[in-house]
Amino acid sequence: PEGSHVLRHTDVYTHTRVLGTDFLPRWRCEVSHVDMTKPDSIISAMRPDTKLLWMESPSNPGMDIIDIAAAVEIAHSRGALVVVDSTFATPVMQQPLTLGADAVMHSMTKYMGGHSDVQGGALIFRENDRTVGQVKEIRNVTGGVLSPFNAWQILRGLRSLSYRVERHTENALAIAQRLEDHPKVERVHYPGLSSHPGHEVAKRQMKGFGGMLSFRVKGGAREALAVASKLKLFINATSLGGVESLIEHRYSIEGSGSVTPSNLLRVAVGLEAAEDLIEDLEQALE
């Protein structure tokens, strides 16, 4: 509602951040951010007018893991709703509604479509949720619906989703483990690694760790960009969830207001042979 307060996690998709800074204030909705990986920080940031907690887990591009059930308990005890963007995890690896979330959002452009040839999104509510009617009304008025062909493309992708996500995950874990041992890599962000601060939470609320990871190159932006430019199999592009492996320097993409480290590269691991991808990364890091 107008005049409400929205609380989001610090690390979120660029355009989610822009929505909070440039658009929601037009409807007198105030958006603030907090490190939601720490439940105590959520409690401290809650206000009497807080109506919504918005989070991504894993987050984009830092791969933070938020304890969804703990965040839900805090929010619901204060009358706020919880929406989780679970695009990175997909429904195969994580189901926020079973953890108490009020709604889950997916970019169907990504893993659900799976072939880098369709755009779409889904906002899924609990059965008989009181906000469903309001959202449907907005959808009907604004015309935010899929074309029949786009819907068919996404249905095609859903039929192979579980098999693809399993391979994405296997490849991502193999790459993350190899990068973690590389002398030119400062840090690897992947919840499947025991070194990840959210590893135990991820094991509890996810069935697998997904195909997204990010890593920091020792040095700075110059060194990270040099690595990205030397890769032969990875495509330097902004997207994820397709059969091909992509890499990008998020700091350059996000522009002013970015909180992403300048030496971080985000990797969308594809379905190619893991050893080929690892070999490509290793030659680029040399």
From TrEMBL:
Signal peptide: none annotated. GO terms for cellular component: cytoplasm. Its cofactor is pyridoxal 5'-phosphate. Coiled coil: none annotated. The keyword Aminoacyl-tRNA synthetase does not apply. Keywords: Pyridoxal phosphate. SUPFAM superfamilies: PLP-dependent transferases. The keyword Amino-acid biosynthesis does not apply. GO terms for biological process: transsulfuration. It holds the Pfam family Cys_Met_Meta_PP. One of its GO terms (molecular function) is carbon-sulfur lyase activity. This is Cystathionine gamma-synthase. It comes from marine metagenome.
